[in-house]
Amino acid sequence: MGRLNKNTDFYNALSPDYDLMVNSSAYINARKGILKKFIREDYKFAADIGCGTGNDSIALALNGLQVIGFEPSAEMLHEAVKKTAAYGCHAGYVNKPASKITTDYNHQFDFVISLGNTLANINPPELKKSLHKIHAILRKGGTLLLQILNYGSLRKENKRVVNVTESGGKIFFRFYDFLPGRLDFSILTAEKENLKNHDLITTRLYEYTKSGMTAMLKTAGFKSLRCYADFNLAPFSASSSKDLIITASK
After folding, report:
1. Domain segments of the chain: what residues?
2. 7-150+208-249: CATH topology
3. Cα–Cα distance between 87 and 130 in angstroms, integer?
4. Is the entire prediction scored with pTM above 0.85?
5. Whole-angstrom Cα distance, residue 18 to residue 237?
6. Helix axes 74-86, 55-62, angle to 10 degrees
7. For the chain, percent helix, then strand, then coil, each to nearest 5?
8. Which residues of the chain have pLDDT under 50?
């Protein structure tokens, strides 16, 4: 295990390599098609909670929406601004976590997303505040789409290795440490030609369940909750699904 980094420090450190690690161009292309299925014709304004380097925000913008991304990591947002300009589209970015979104954004968005396991980075007290803020910024009848990993299944199967990818002369090893009452997420980045030149960062994640997440969403005021295993809306299984996808409305 590496030294435990504050979540914002973890993503600030990761920001220069994040798009290499996830292959952002392929990701954006795929996500554009996925999100299109959830966007109604009357939707105009969207928010991306935990937008990172802007991949989902760009996918929303490419679908014709006016987008604002909220992100606590200033360095991730720096990458988002550069990349959005490179794609020739527009999105606004705000350097704030969801729990600190200001009231001037209330009732401004038709569609709010939080994908890429973002909410698992937020501790329970802050997540409760965040969900109330997300509910507040939605317009009446607006939709929330969120995705987190199904950690109950992952912990049961002890799937420690998330992924190993290679890009830009670097190799990225993503893995978990399933500890009693705690889950640590680490990324080991090594130069391909000199593996001794490497860096390890670690942060804590929170293992939210379907029942826990839906209970918090209902408390925040959301209704019409639906849970799925993937973006094709397959039925969710607590014992075997990799992802938990939730749609909800205001």
Report:
1. 7-150+208-249, 153-205
2. Rossmann fold (3.40.50)
3. 30
4. yes
5. 30
6. 30
7. 35, 35, 30
8. none
